[in-house]
What we know:
Helix content: 40-55%
Radius of gyration: 17 Å
Largest sheet: 3 strands, parallel
Order of helices and strands: HEHEHHHHHE
Number of helices: 7
Distance between the termini: 23 Å
Structural class: mainly alpha
Strand order of the largest sheet: 1-2-3
Number of strands: 3
Amino acid sequence: MIGFGNSAAPSRESFEYTFENLTKNVAGFLAALKVDQYFLYVFDYGAPIGFRLAMRQPERVLGIVSQNGNIYQEGLGPKWAERAKYWANPTPELRAQYESAFAPATIKGQYLTGEKPGTVGPDGYSLDIAHTTEPGYAERQDDLIFDYQTNVALYPQFQDYVRQYQPENLAAWGKNDPSFIYPGAPRS
């Protein structure tokens, strides 16, 4: 996805970091590769992108593997209540609070919380931490934190898609995920 991992990360002046634009980018990528049908593997921020694609062209989806790919209010961890306050009142001060979401300790915590010491290698979180030092990273991610509210608003439509089309679905859930918590799994 644009702005993640080793993908291109255009400036905020040339690309608006919203889930809708990320969805359009992935759709364009699939079209360029002439991929007409696919299995979706969705997790974290990729889940709403995958479900947006699925809703628009359900005939293309052969099945879904969801790893903490939340589409239910019950699956939002406690930190999302604070984010909802930010969505309702997007002050610069509240936006600045989310810069800590990209602090090395926070990122390590996402990987290590609830795990036995020594069982998680440093590769994943070290790479994630390295990406946070890229110019504009925090601002792009702050844009997406603010825009995540559009996904929550679409949760009922994502659920309608699943009920109507009943795609084959394998839902796996990490019990220690602080963002997309286990109560979202039984609904998936």
